[in-house]
Amino acid sequence: MLTWFIINFSKQVNVVIMNCMNCDGNTKVKNSRHQVRSNQVWRRRQCLKCKAVFTTEETIYYQAAWLVRDKLGAYMPFMPDKLVLSLNKSLQHRPTALSDAIGLSHTIIRKLQPQFTDGMIDNKAIVQVTQVALNRFDHAASVHYEAHHRLP
Description:
By secondary structure, the protein is α+β, with helices and mostly antiparallel strands. The chain has five helices and eight strands; from the N terminus they run βββββαββααβαα. The protein has helices at 62-65, 80-90, 97-112, 123-137, 139-148, and strands spanning 2-8, 12-18, 27-35, 40-47, 53-59, 67-69, 75-77, 120-122. The protein is elongated. It starts with a strand and ends with a helix. The relative contact order is 0.11.
């Protein structure tokens, strides 16, 4: 269970308290690492009450942070899972299609981040970045993706 406390002085400060999943006691962070490729934070936590040790991964909730403009001009939340599914379909000829799709999606999202202005992006930009990444990784997958995601 995450609890957020907002202290509103001159700027907003977020304090996260993670409770133990076994006894609901407070925990402390023993080790923390930023995962650059997947844009996540990995943390090893220990309960102060029962001494249980567990791992958490913190990641951005993209659906709330980014909007995508489609061909008709409508906005919808950015769905990383939709990108993974699309990549997986294009990579289906590979024995490691799913793990490749997940890894590529992390790379594509990282490359898309600078293109989001005010939390919005055109669908075309996502398709273009995805095509470039797929072409570098697997040309056959790139051809499959391009056939299903044509740009005007």
